[in-house]
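hi! just following up on the protien thing from before. the input was this:
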Amino acid sequence: MLLFSGKRRKRMSDFERAAELIKSAKKIAVLTGAGISAESGVPTFRGRGGLWQKYRAEELATPEAFQKDPVLVWKFYDYRRRLISKVEPNKAHRILAEWENSLGNIEIVTQNIDGLHQRAGSKKVVELHGNIWQAICLKENRVFKFKENPIKEFPPKCSECGGLIRPDVVWFGEALDPLILEKAFNLFESADVAIVIGTSSIVYPAAYLPQITKKNGGSTIEINIEETALTPLADFFFKGKASDILSQINNYLS
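and the predicted 3d structure came back as:
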């Protein structure tokens, strides 16, 4: 006869195991995509149904479109800016900001241009594709904050030199800023835990970032409403909304 003293230890849930992994990490790198902002109501302008007036985003978010008709392109971005200004960071954004304050070892790399991570309180944010609330003066090649909402003049001009400005975002056909990309690669290379939230994991080079952590012996946690190309490589895959999943993990961190 086998005798047991005390209670048998309850098996840890995946949420608890993921929380333990996060707690023990020396450095955490987070990659976020459109999925995390979709929960706040930020619309997606790509793919089927992604029309603005009679145009697709792919037809407007290009250097060629801007050169041909900067007024039309800026009206498209003015529309997007007005929509984004009406939404708020959701619980997932806020939990990541809380972790930055409490853990102190977490940095975010985002594919989003909406600035919601910063509005939630995150300070360590690398924006791969730029920021819709910034602009570039084409005359002086200067990046500056541009929060005029709604835009009063089309196309808007630089307040200092009067030159034409464009949104500080990466358009189709343009390469990512090599310095920003290098910083993102370094973050995931030095991280022992990578958390991937709301991204399809098919757009490179961003999709390669969590793989770098994995190849260097780190662990990956993926959160998405559906499986992706990364899922087979992830140590933990949580299917669902980012706010729900992060809340459950956060319960074990508190």
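The chain has ten helices and eleven strands.
Residues 16-41+89-129+176-254 form a domain with the Rossmann fold fold (CATH 3.40.50.1220).
cheers
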